[in-house]
């Protein structure tokens, strides 16, 4: 090797530097391999089911943190974020009770709950290290940014919640926010107006406006569960209606949060996927089909245009390169949905 001569005689310091560099290279190669199923010697990737938005008696939920953790543990989830309004619940004792290696993990969190011009602004802070106070701001976008920044400063991962709750947050507001990657494209609370209407865009339409403008944002489905003691009450916000399936090498806070911010997850209200492959060349979605359902997979690009519709399984879309972005949504014949995260393509000349 050409560099060998220069190593000689520089003693243990240089050797240590070289070893550290080689180790770092190895770690990076390992992480890259982990992102590609089928690569060699990487930890196998698994799907973990989780809910990132949940309330307890520590704010306006109707059940104690242990009852809430138990519900999710007993209903097949792998992870749960407790996100009370402006309250950070300690998860140490809960994890001692309910946590189990590779089976269940409770992450700390908070719903930073702010208000500007009478409009409710809620931003979840996943795994914040300390309580984040609502930051306020001169405008909706300013307050969103200040709350996102405060969550990042507390080493947390921000997600923008239910934009249409109180018709508070527009796509234009979200477009002005930086350093955020996640928003709720579905929230299970019955008063958050996911579908839009009356001249206001629904959350998928908002997502397409944001993606069309070139901002990469990933869509979450969450419960925003408040009520565990009112099963069957349509006015209640119960658990089990929207969740994420995260593909990660292990069930740890870091692995889960990194996969979320990298878009290696899908959001769902009941459709289960066996596999998702996203690259600049192709998006492919394999559905874990039930015997009683039929499925349509829709591939969506710039301006929310439907690029293709498929009833095949797997559903595959070969990217041409001028779509702006490509995302997929799977529609199940009883109304359930799964949202696959967008692939952003290079800057394209605008169509109009
Ligand atoms: Zn909220
Ligand atoms: Zn909430």
Describe the structure in your own words:
It is built from eight helices and 18 strands. By secondary structure, the chain is of the alpha/beta class. The strands form three sheets. A nine-stranded mixed beta sheet has the order 4-2-1-10-11-18-17-14-15, with helices on both faces. The protein has a six-stranded mixed beta sheet with strand order 3-5-6-7-8-9. The chain is globular, with a radius of gyration of 22 Å. The N and C termini lie far apart (55 Å). The model is unreliable at 1-39 (pLDDT under 50). One zinc ion is lined by residues 53, 55, 111, 224.
- Low-confidence spans: pLDDT under 50, at least 5 residues? 1-39
Name of the CATH homologous superfamily of the largest domain: Metal-dependent hydrolases
The profile of the biggest β sheet is:
9 strands, mixed
What Rg is obtained from the alpha carbons, in whole angstroms?
Answer: 22 Å
Task: Please estimate the helix content.
Answer: 10-25%
Oligomer: single chain
Associated small molecules:
zinc ion
> Looking at CATH, which topology of the largest domain would you report?
TIM Barrel
Global structural class: alpha/beta
Mean pLDDT equals 90
Strand content: 25-35%
Q: Write out the strand line-up for the largest beta sheet, numbering strands in chain order.
A: 4-2-1-10-11-18-17-14-15
Q: Can you count the helices?
A: 8
């Amino acid at each position: 090797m050409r560099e060998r001569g220069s190593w000689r005689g520089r003693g243990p310091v240089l050797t240590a530097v070289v070893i550290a560099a080689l180790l770092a290279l190895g770690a990076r190669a390992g992480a890259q391999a982990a992102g590609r199923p089928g690569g060699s010697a990487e930890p196998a990737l698994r799907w973990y089911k989780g809910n990132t938005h949940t309330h307890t008696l520590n704010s306006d939920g109707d059940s104690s943190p242990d009852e809430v953790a138990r519900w999710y543990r007993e209903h097949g989830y792998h992870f749960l974020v407790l996100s009370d309004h402006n309250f950070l619940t300690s998860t140490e004792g809960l994890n001692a009770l309910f946590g189990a290696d590779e089976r269940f993990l409770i992450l700390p969190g908070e719903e930073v709950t702010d208000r500007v011009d009478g409009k409710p602004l809620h931003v979840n802070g996943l795994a914040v290290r300390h309580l984040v106070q609502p930051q306020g701001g001169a405008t909706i976008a300013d307050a969103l940014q200040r709350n996102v920044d405060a969550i990042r400063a507390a080493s947390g991962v921000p997600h923008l919640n239910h934009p249409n709750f109180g018709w508070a947050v527009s796509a234009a507001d979200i477009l002005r926010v930086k350093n955020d990657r996640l928003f709720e494209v579905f929230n299970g609370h019955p008063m958050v107006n996911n579908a839009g209407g009356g001249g206001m865009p629904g959350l998928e339409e908002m997502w397409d406006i944001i993606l069309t403008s070139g901002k990469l944002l990933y869509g979450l489905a969450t419960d925003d569960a408040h009520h565990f003691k009112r099963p069957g009450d349509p006015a209640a916000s119960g658990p089990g209606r929207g969740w994420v399936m995260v593909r990660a090498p292990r069930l740890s806070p870091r692995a889960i949060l990194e996969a979320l911010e990298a878009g290696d997850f899908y959001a769902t209200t009941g459709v289960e996927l066996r596999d998702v492959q996203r690259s600049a060349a192709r998006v492919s979605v394999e559905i874990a089909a039930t015997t009683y359902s039929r499925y349509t997979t829709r591939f969506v690009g710039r301006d929310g245009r439907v690029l293709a519709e498929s009833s095949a399984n797997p559903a595959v879309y070969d990217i041409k390169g001028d779509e702006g972005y490509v995302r997929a949504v799977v529609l199940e014949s009883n109304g359930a949905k799964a949202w696959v995260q967008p692939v952003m393509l290079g800057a394209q000349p605008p169509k109009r």
